[in-house]
Design brief:
The protein contains ten helices and ten strands. It is of the alpha/beta class. The strands form three sheets. A five-stranded parallel sheet has the order 2-3-1-4-10, sandwiched between helices.
């Protein structure tokens, strides 16, 4: 019952108007459906940040046990892909990682989506991401999939990082990580993390190997890429109010303190914010005065 003449339109103009309205509604419906395809992770998400060799992988595994939250190391996952000679994506990833560069955003987001929405631990409170995101663009993409509960940034001096990275060893059999470096410089005291059987073999009997991406020439490039691409995430999460930083000068022996500080920080973030009462004079607002005659 729309009267074209009443609206001052010709029949041709009215038909055109109705078509545009219907087409617009169709487009809105399509957009809504597309938006619904992007799942949202509902549980707690904790992100561990820090340069290569800072120890976030080790701390992540311990936090995972204490919090009943799985820890997902994108680095470990990508390295496992790279070891498959029959995997096209694995060999592409290997070439990138061996050079010390970062894997592209699309590959990383495919990996993250696959892990976030894999409901293998339904009773877990959430997930810990170790080594992701690695760029601000990846952080923006992650924001569309989940709300970050806290971002914990670990940091050490560059010369200490170099010692730790050059000392890293990995069991070729069970993949357990060790470190033969004995760091003693200034306030930094980090004893080596060795197997009970010595410094050449894992407790499982497997040989200890130096990873390809922990060789000196690659380490230099990894640190360079980190400061260019990943370090800006500190400011990104600081602006969001979810960043805390910690310098573990004593390494693994500081873990109880590290956990306590993170627990306190998360508790503080979850606490309801107090709403301050409005005071006009705080903003130097002139208040008109009423006069009676």
């Amino acid at each position: 019952g729309i009267n074209a003449e009443y609206m001052g339109l010709s029949k041709k103009e009215m038909v055109s108007l109705l078509c545009n309205l219907l087409f617009g509604a169709f487009n809105c419906t399509k957009l809504t459906c597309a938006e619904k395809k992007q799942q949202i992770y509902q549980k707690t998400m904790i992100i561990l940040l820090g340069a290569p060799g800072v120890g976030k992988g080790t701390y992540g595994k311990l936090l995972s046990q204490d919090w009943n939250m799985p820890v997902f190391s994108t680095g470990d996952y990508l390295r496992s892909l790279a070891k498959d000679p029959n995997s096209e994506i694995g060999q592409r990833v290997k070439k990138i990682m061996d050079s010390g560069a970062l894997v592209d955003d699309k590959t990383m987001m495919d990996v993250i989506d696959n892990r976030l929405f894999k409901d293998d631990l339904p009773d877990a409170k959430g997930i810990i991401l170790d080594g992701f995101p690695r760029t601000v663009s990846q952080a923006d993409l992650l924001d569309k999939r989940a709300k970050v509960g806290a971002a914990v940034n670990f940091y050490l001096r560059d010369d200490v990082l170099m010692q730790k990275l050059c000392g890293r060893r990995e069991c070729d059999k069970c993949k357990k990580a060790y470190n033969v470096a004995d760091v003693k410089t200034g306030d930094y005291v980090m004893p080596p993390l060795l197997p009970k059987s010595g410094s050449t073999k894992c407790d499982c009997g497997g040989p200890l190997m130096l990873r390809d991406d922990d060789k000196p020439a690659v380490i230099q490039n990894r640190l360079k890429v980190y400061y260019e691409k990943t370090a800006p995430l500190e400011e990104y999460y600081k602006k969001k109010g979810v960043l805390m930083s910690y310098e573990p000068k004593k390494g693994l022996t500081e873990y109880p303190t590290i956990k306590q500080r993170i627990d306190e920080f998360i508790k503080e973030l979850k606490a309801p914010k107090k709403i301050q009462s409005f005071s006009p004079n705080k903003f130097n607002i002139l208040i008109p005065v009423s006069y009676t005659h």
